[in-house]
Amino acid sequence: MEPDELAELRTMYIFIPPDGQTWNLTFPGLEAILRRREPDAFIRIDEGTHGPVTGTSMDFEITLDDELLEGMALLSPEGVTVKDATARSAATFALWLRNNAVPAGMAMVFNTAWGVEDDLPDTPVPDATRPRIAAAFMAHLVEAGDLD
Description:
Number of strands: 7
Helix content: 25-40%
Shape: globular
Mean pLDDT: 90
């Protein structure tokens, strides 16, 4: 697959803390961060059917680089996803998440919907620039989709 074709592939990117660690993610905290960026952002918290923690999820939208992205957050397992994203838009989101929601000094790992389907392990998000993060995401897509 050509690099420009690979760059346009869209899938869900999943961002979580490394095994045994936590970001102490809360829906009110994430909502406050999103509202500081976009006061009228779409945010919906679903309390689920089994109480305030089990089965809860938060759906949201965020605009980054003039692109509207849809996301979801879970408390258990703890993590944040961005749906239907290119490697570049996912890298932009990962940087935003790291700089605004992940506690300073904490690591972040990722996978994709394709990687989960292929049982690929979670991979650290590089502490790097957006182009380097996007390159890591594209390498993951090649591995997950046998696209080379």
